[in-house]
Known about the structure:
The chain is α/β, with parallel strands linked by helices. The chain has 10 helices and 5 strands, in the order βαβαβαβαβαααααα.
Amino acid sequence: MKDERISVVIADDHKLFRKGIRALLEEFQFIEKIYEAGNGLELLELLKLLDLLPQVILLDIQMPVMDGIEAHKLIRKLYPQVKVIVLTMEDDEQFITYMISEGVNGYLLKNAEPEELEGAIQKVYINDFYFPADMSNLVIKSGSQKNVEKPVLPEFSERELEVLALICSAFTAPEIAARLNISRRTVEGHRNKLLQKSGTKNIAGLVMYAVKNKLVFLQ
């Protein structure tokens, strides 16, 4: 994203935290506009008023009036093209896997380093997903608990698994096309089939599905 600049919304009910994140985002050269909302309802009203939708939303979960869970459901329905990174102190394993299954593009704890936040926004914008490495281990763990029946996986073709591995390694569609010597349109076709077969809502969900079912192993 050399010369590209994007817009970001910070949705959090703590004004001091919002101002701190805003000051941080203003240092990132690829961010052009920054908006703020104090709860989920304010966020949805803001999105309704904007002529151009933001590319990325940093979304807190615990907010008054309308929390992040409800807001995210409505965003996925009304603005599916907008990418959402959950930025929270909520580190419960079940909750994280639930939000991933609901289609969030990224999940980051509020105690993350500024460099990680910068990288997370860039990766979500370019590749549709970002999760810290230890979160991948968490997802694997959640799928291998005792007394959990192993799901029957759909049949994936060799080419689909190749595309899946490259998606999980954060290659973009053009990069995958060049690497496999196929058209970008063919890559998109394989990606759509992978989403359909896995029953996932977006690339973030697909990546976690692949990790959980040990179809790929993230470094």
